[in-house]
Amino acid sequence: MAIAGYRRDIDGLRSIAIGSVVLYHAGFQVFSGGFVGVDIFFVISGFLITSGLLKDAAGDGISIARFYVRRIRRIVPAYLAVVLAALVVGAFLLLPSEYLALGRSALATSLFVANIHSWSETGYFSGSAISHPLLHMWSLAVEEQYYLIWPIVMMGFFGLQRRTGLSTAWLPRLIVVAIVLSLAASEVMLSYSAKTVFYMAPFRAWELLLGSLLASVRWPRLPGPWAAHAVGGLALALMVVPILLLTEASRFPGLSALAPCLGAVLILYRDERYPSFAAMLLSRRIPVFLGLISYSLYLWHWPVLSFYWFATRSDPSPGWALALVLLMLALATLSWRYIERPFRVSAVPHAAGSERHVLLLGAGGLAAAAIAAVAVLAGQGFPARLPPAAARVDALAREPYVSRHGCVLTDALPDDPARSCFAAADRLPGRKIVLWGDSFAGQHVNTIEGALDRPGRPVISVVATGCTPLAGVDQYFGKGRLDARCGQFNRAVFQELLRRPDIDSVIIAGRWSNLYGLPARKGTFDPTARFLMDADHRARNVRSSLDVMARSLDRMAGQLLDRGVAVTMLREPPRYAANVRDCVALALWRGQSVVSRCGMPEAEARAMREPVDAVFSRLHQRYNNLLIYDQITQLCPADYCLGYKNETLITRDTEHLTRAGSVIALGPLLKSARFSNFPAE
Questions:
Q1: What is the pTM of this model?
Q2: How many other CB atoms sit within 10 Å of the CB of residue 575?
Q3: DSSP 8-state secondary structure symbol assigned to residue 639
Q4: Beta carbons of 33 and 242 less than 8 angstroms apart
Q5: Alpha-helical regions (H) of 269-313
Q6: What are the structural domain ranges in the chain?
Q7: Cβ-based neighbour number of residue 326 at 10 Å
Q8: I need a labelling partner for 415 at 20 to 30 A (CA). Which of 121, 150, 311, 316 fits?
């Protein structure tokens, strides 16, 4: 069927966009920057939407109702099919807590605010992204938010033009201003919140507006075929190079997204007299077909990968990844053939009624999906699907860290921790015990304060999650970004410990092995790890980070011990391969062995933290009166670690302990002479 104004090369351009996204998500590392395919889609959408609106404006005028009827026919049927399919499949694969999260995501998706939901829930590049089957819907929400505003802006502009005689040349000028403002805002905001720039429409608007600008301007003709080929070659390079060279560690989006967006613009810009080799390549049968099914392929590809992960709780091997890509293509082809096309181009839906009827059908479908999502929320994820023991484990909520006298900081850090966290110490009489650390100290707040805090012997907890307690050290995220706030906070806390004469004991706990590119399992490295630097060590590598850690711990222990402070450092609990709560609940649900599926030998747990244990061993040799306490000894009886004992969850994720686990881990320490004989006033 011939479509007026149809360009095969645009579908070919879509094939580049969808191919890069799918292969990147499927784990083919050569396409490490494949996420830029979404940016290419944004440019295409801006171009096509604005071209259609300009055509309407030149005819009988822009009609908002007609615009949304077209959008509903194009977007909503396949969109709803994926949302409802995800809810159905999720009922068989997801734990109640996971199904509840899917319900929240499905509701946000039905309301076209999935980008806002994803921004509040998870990062696109975070390890937990795969556990969100509808995460990819954020980009469609950005487009829909653009569609909500842009037709009104265009209608307002042409209405003003009719009344005042305003030149049409002002439209591209205004678009250029908007592009500059949006791009500048995104580049500046990257320094404060990359996640906000990634997900929020105002910071992505410039990409759609680039396409709108191209549609609104009559561009000069090319001087000859050689120029067309040069432009086409440049366009392909601008897209392919970022797809191959950008990584999750890149500063993105912002200016890093400009090259692929300009590449898309150059493909969309053409001189019909001189078709470029790039346009001819993209107009061939396979790229065009991939472009035709690209919307359905985008909709289905991420749920396929996510539900594979839920079914296996592991990432696919290269062979499985290829099989999943073939499954995505099959689903996308069926979706395009039997859902997209009938509603978009068939005469049958058009005969069903007026524009109002189509709008009502679209709204009704979205409402039905929202109602289904609300049912999942109201049913709390339907825990009755599971055996009672499995449901109880899954229902264990994250236990809050609440300190009686100190501070437990989970978000912003105070400018003056001495005032914010030690204020109670000035009011309370007696010799103090201080618990200092990150979430690995936070998990013990309730246990330590419950056992040791009493009148005349208060416990002051100073906890900042994500800030491992090392003084005089700069912590860099694996992506190279300095975590300056943690460094400032730790320096201030340590100075306060040295300054105060009423502190007799300090317990220090942290996620030490996260600070040197933690070897996760089987030789791989944790991408969320941090690296350490100080004045003498500026290299970003494992050996240098371990040296910096050793120097900082040595300095802290030496200065505190010289002041007569009893120092206790806690080694980490075991780190499991998978979330223990989920593993145990799934094993109980599926009738599998909790011990074999969810535990590990003690030797494996110790091997993972061997480098940092060597640091602690040297510290202990240097300071005989420094107590270094090993939690693994208590948590791994009979040479085997298991985060579930006597129907009680001990480890709530991969390594953080529950309150019950904290009591088991620290029981001998808190009953030891070091604390039972602690002097009180």
A1: 0.86
A2: 23
A3: G
A4: yes
A5: 277-282, 285-292, 294-312
A6: 8-385, 407-574+604-634+661-676
A7: 9
A8: 121
Distance CA 254, CA 265 (A): 17
Q: How far apart are CA 440 and CA 511, in angstroms?
A: 6
For residue 260, what are the CA distances in angstroms to 241, 538, 611?
8, 34, 42
Own/partner pairs, 107-112, CB within 8 angstroms, 24+ separation? 107/370, 107/373, 107/374, 107/377, 108/141, 109/79, 109/83, 109/134, 109/137, 109/141, 109/369, 110/83, 110/366, 110/367, 110/369, 110/370, 110/373, 111/366, 111/370, 112/140, 112/141, 112/144, 112/145
Cα–Cα distance list, 26 to 122, 322, 522, 678 (Å): 19, 8, 21, 57
Asked whether 441 and 512 are in contact (CB, 8 A), the reply is no
**Polymer length of the chain:** 681
As a whole number of angstroms, the distance between CA 453 and CA 640 comes to: 33
Portion of the chain with pLDDT greater than 90, in percent: 72
Q: Which two tokens stand for residue 239?
A: 């897209």
Q: What is the mean pLDDT of residues 99-121?
A: 96
Query: What's the confidence (pLDDT) of residue 516?
Result: 61
- Per the structure block, which two tokens stand in for 461? 């907890």
Tokens describing residue 156: 């307002």
407-574+604-634+661-676 to CATH, choices 3.40.50, 2.60.40, 2.40.160, 3.30.70: 3.40.50
What's the sign of the alpha-carbon dihedral 608, 487, 471, 651?
negative
* DSSP bridge partners of 500: none
426-484 pLDDT per residue, tens? 888 888 999 999 999 999 999 999 999 888 889 999 998 888 999 988 877 655 566 67
Distance CA 432, CA 441 (A): 17
Is residue 350 pLDDT above 60, yes or no? no
Distance (Å, whole) CA 215 – CA 288: 21
Is 225 strand, coil or helix? helix
What is residue 517's predicted lDDT score, i.e. its pLDDT? 54
Q: How far apart are CA 130 and CA 304, in angstroms?
A: 10
CB 227 within 8 A of CB 274: yes
Alpha carbon 348 to its chain's center: 42
Count of CB atoms within 10 A of residue 136's CB? 25
Record the tokens describing residue 358, joined without a space. 């189509």
pLDDT tens column, 218-242: 888 888 899 999 999 999 999 999 9
Amino acid at 521: R
Q: Which residues pair with 641 in a beta bridge?
A: 600
> Number of helices (H) and strands (E), helices first, in the chain?
32, 12
Region of 639 (left: φ > 0; alpha: ψ -120 to 50; beta: rest) is left
Amino acid found at 444: H
